[in-house]
Amino acid sequence: MPGFELFGDTERAQVNDVLESGVLMRYGFDGMRNGHWKAIELEKALAKRMNVKHAQLLSSGTSALTVALASAGVGAGDEVIMPTFTFVASFESILAIGAVPILVDVDDTLTLDIDAVKNAITEKTKVIMPVHMCGSMADLKALKSICDQHELLLVEDACQAIGGTFEGKPLGSYGDLGCFSFDYVKTITCGEGGAVITNNETYKLNADHYSDHGHDHIGKDRGAETHPFLGYNYRISELNAAVGVAQLARLDEFLAIQKKHYAVLRMALEDVEGVTFRRVPEGGEESYAFLNFFLPDETTTKKVHKSLGDAGVDGCFYWFDNNWHYYRKWEHLINLKSLGKLPQAVYDQLPDYSKADFSKSDHWVKRNISCLIKLGWTEVEVQLRADKMAEVISSLV
Ligand SMILES: *Cc1c(COP(=O)(O)O)cnc(C)c1O
Q: Fewest Cβ atoms closer than 10 Å to its Cβ: which of 113, 114, 144, 270?
């Protein structure tokens, strides 16, 4: 997955353009910038690549999620349905705007379980936020139909699956809004950065204003601009955007490498007894950022995970015990340990997650191992890794 593995001359040249003009800000300073508008260039290129009308760059994937929700008018007391298996950014972005994160189970897709979503809907639900974890997607068709039926927004977190598709559409473009992260370990990186994509012009304008203190961006004098509504600062810098311009141009090259490496590892594990693979919903194609598989039980899975590490097969994750990606270790959320007070709606409406039953998620996640697909491996390295994985697993299952 990490695009930083293949940094090269194009990234350097893009950053140099910005350093030579000295304009590190994405807005204003027209005369000084030698025609370089890296953030705008990246927004145009991203919208084109994702086949949508609009893209808004932001300072991170977490800000992208926050701005996506805010730009669609989600706010205090609104409930947002999200999975138990994701990164903490999901509930952080929801809490940031005073909304309430409603956790629901995942299934063998390692993303939102459709029945669990249906059961979680109340009159306060405003958004369903699937997270396309580890390179593959939620069943977007089923989720879209639930959203249509209940008049909910579909906001896709595609931070870990950029380049994957569903029914031929790029992940992130299927819902009302889609979010990407370009942090340092993602498939393409800006160092720090993120983006919202949408076909909805109002959301785009809202995102554009909201992420820059409410600036309406009309005219050439920043100080004279008006502020139609309250905003915040979630801007990206030109330096970060410049790296992204170079990296986005290489996305398809990176995806092809991921797919090739994934195929070798998958083939080696296909015939290993006891190994099953994560379900990809019908109509979906993974980004191949990770290879995800299940083993027969928790004890075996833990043993295999440890033995893979001992055998030098790095980059394999056992999320069930992870502090950041699975609800079991989110005691700061469960106990609402915030620095200051949270909005009253959060205290009133947040379910008591210390008593929640997510055994359905546990059933899948405790038997899952996810292996990162790296870009920099040589063919020989991938084959050695594949052979070693098959050997380790066969010996323990
Ligand atoms: C990385 C990530 C984010 C947040 O992105 P940052 O740019 O690190 O803020 C959000 N959701 C998922 C699923 C992620 O993997």
A: 270
